[in-house]
Design brief:
With about 425 residues, the chain is of the alpha+beta class. The chain is built from 13 helices and 19 strands. Strand 12 and strand 13 form a beta hairpin. Bound molecules: glycine and manganese (II) ion (MN) (2 copies).
Length: about 425
């Protein structure tokens, strides 16, 4: 791992909170993510399952966690199974956790090698009434690829058909959405690294630079600061490319007079930032670009005020839509009379602002959370309004990450330049 060791109190506490919410006599099983083959002898970079990481801090493939607080055998109330290394693995893949290292990382005392999993499970499972399985219940998750927890569940059901199976996801959804102080610190670190990369890019950008050169600058800054890498495929979209919401070809030249939309951020210790900024390639916004920019910034400022405990996402989006509508009228993009007659189910602002304003952020960039539950203290949400004008080859999005506190909210990106003058000043110095 590139990041500094995390205090295992985070994971001890997370497990404690999880088992507090399970039924009596329940055994929960969590699997690490699959490794995905890339070609003959290669896999894609391993990415830990966020729930598994949340409960263990273990960043290694083929690991299994069993939580069984009511287990009659004290040795198996909390057990971690790990891949046992050998000479071959050491030569070809490198270091794997020793039991001592895994104990230190996770705070779990009882660590076994994977070869002992079936036997140990068999010895305790009949004493459990419920088995909690960790299905992926993110409502945006596409089920095209079967994942490890689901496959293991199929096998388990055949072997132990009469247990009562339960969903861990319902508990994880409530737990993960409320960030602890340590998680906020890690998220802040991801934001701070992102800040440095952004300022570096502002100093680097000029007409004639390519989008991929900017990507290289960002990647260099991320890695030298111990980020795992990009939180998501970076979007470096100059000119009309910014209209494509998930543009990441990043292969064009940045032209004089264009605005470039950046949506990039660091991942640090599996925690993500998610930032967007839009800046003039030549260091000065035109009058029109500036008008659109300031409109988006005003919408963001107003929207951020609503990111407080008690707000419900759907109502919030409607309110932001109203603010955006009046800005779009101000910019001459919408007509007031047309707006008065609009179908409320298909508001006109969506022509220029076609995505949601906010999503939860954490171990997943689009973090696991209920979209119907009101915001709570400890939530971290993005705020990312944008205006995309195809006819003008102009797309502007601004995105900050907001923590909800007892007394309102705190912008974790407050230090990242966002005022147009400030951005121009950095670019021209
Ligand atoms: N970068 C992904 C998003 O803003 O949602
Ligand atoms: Mn983003
Ligand atoms: Mn986002």
């Amino acid at each position: 791992m590139k990041y500094k060791a995390i205090d295992n109190g985070l994971f001890i506490n997370n497990r404690k909170n999880f088992v507090l919410r399970t039924k009596p006599n329940a055994l929960a099983i969590f699997h690490a993510n699959d490794e995905f083959p890339r070609s003959g002898d290669q896999t894609f970079i391993f990415k830990q399952n966020p729930d598994f990481f949340y409960l263990t801090g273990i960043d290694q493939e083929q690991s299994i966690l069993i939580l069984f607080p009511d287990c009659p055998n004290n040795a198996y109330k909390e057990v971690l199974f790990l891949r046992q290394t050998n000479e071959h693995i050491a030569i070809w893949e490198g270091h794997k956790y020793t039991k001592e290292e895994a104990r230190a990382a996770s705070g779990i005392e009882n660590i076994y090698w994977l070869s002992e999993y079936e036997t140990i499970l068999q010895s305790i499972i009949y004493y459990a009434e419920y088995i909690y399985i960790n299905t992926n219940e993110n409502d945006k998750y596409g089920h095209g690829v079967p994942y490890r927890d689901l496959r293991m569940y199929e096998a388990l059901k055949l072997k132990y058909p009469l247990h009562k199976y339960e969903r861990s996801a319902l508990i994880m959804r409530d737990l993960r959405v409320i960030k602890s102080a340590m998680e906020i610190e890690l998220t802040q670190k991801a934001c701070d690294i992102t800040n440095d990369a952004f300022v570096r890019v502002l100093k680097f950008l000029k007409p004639g630079v390519t989008e991929y050169e900017i990507e290289a600058e960002i990647t260099h800054e991320f890695l030298r600061q111990q980020a795992t890498g990009h939180a998501y495929n970076p979007i470096l979209a100059s000119g009309k490319n910014a209209i494509v919401l998930h543009y990441n070809d990043n292969n064009q030249v940045c032209n004089d007079g264009d605005v470039i939309l950046f949506d990039f951020a660091a991942e640090y210790a599996n925690y993500n930032a998610d930032m967007s900024r839009s800046v003039p390639v030549n260091g000065r916004f035109t009058k029109r670009q500036r008008a659109v920019y300031d409109a988006v910034l005003r919408v963001m400022r107003e929207a951020v005020k609503m990111i407080v405990a008690g707000t419900v996402l759907g109502d919030y989006q409607d309110e932001v839509g109203k603010i955006m509508t009046s800005e779009l009228i101000g910019l001459g993009l919408l007509d007031r009379h047309d707006v008065e007659k609009q179908d409320v189910k298909a508001p006109l602002y969506k022509k220029y602002f076609m995505h949601g304003t906010s999503h939860h952020l954490g171990l997943d960039v689009h973090d696991f959370a209920s979209r119907y539950k009101a915001f709570e203290v400890g939530n971290v949400l993005t705020c990312e309004p944008g205006i995309y004008i195809t006819e003008e080859g102009l797309g502007i999005r601004i995105e900050n990450n907001i923590l909800i506190t007892e007394s309102g909210n705190r912008d974790l990106m407050v230090n990242i330049p966002v005022e147009a003058e400030h951005i121009e000043e950095i670019m021209n110095n």
